[in-house]
Amino acid sequence: MIKAIRWIVPLFAVGLLSGCAWVTLTPAGEQVQVASKEAVANCQRVGKTTVSTLSQVAGLNRYEESMQDELNKLARNSAVELGGDTVVPISAIEDGKQVFEVYRCRSSETQ
């Protein structure tokens, strides 16, 4: 019974943590969208950003969907600093890191 508890409690904790949102969007980041490469054909490229998040919690790999959501939020927040309003992922997630290109698609009058 005690051996079972030793495994159940950490697994339960990891399960709870893996669903937690570690990253929040800034108010400015909320105005940035994630798009495909095709969607930015008529946009101005303003830079590139590499963002990262935890790829493991308590030694266990995190769900890719959770990491992608956090990386998208981080890229959106980062795009604001470059004057962008759209981000496009250009690499796969590797060890919790991903590269995004940053674009300006809206004119400064509409922002």
Could you please describe the fold and organization of this structure?
The structure is a single chain. Helices cover 32% and strands 24% of the residues. It has helices spanning 2-18, 64-81; strands spanning 33-34, 44-52, 56-57, 60-61, 86-89, 97-104. The strands form two sheets. The protein has a four-stranded mixed beta sheet with strand order 1-5-6-2, with helices on one face. Strands 3-4 form a two-stranded antiparallel ribbon. Strand 3 and strand 4 form a beta hairpin. The termini are far apart.
Reconstruct the topology from this structure.
Layout: H1 2-18, E1 33-34, E2 44-52, E3 56-57, E4 60-61, H2 64-81, E5 86-89, E6 97-104
Parallel strand pairs: 1-5
Antiparallel strand pairs: 2-6, 3-4, 5-6
Order of helices and strands: HEEEEHEE
- Give the termini separation: 60 Å
Q: Roughly what percent helix?
A: 25-40%
Which structural class should the secondary elements be placed in?
Answer: alpha+beta
Q: Give the C-alpha Rg.
A: 18 Å
What's the β-strand tally?
6
Low-confidence stretches: 11-19
Count the DSSP helices: 2
Strand order in space, largest sheet: 1-5-6-2
Taken from the alpha-carbon principal axes, the silhouette is elongated
Query: For the residues shown, what is the average pLDDT?
Result: 84
Q: How much strand? A: 15-25%
Sheet with most strands: 4 strands, mixed
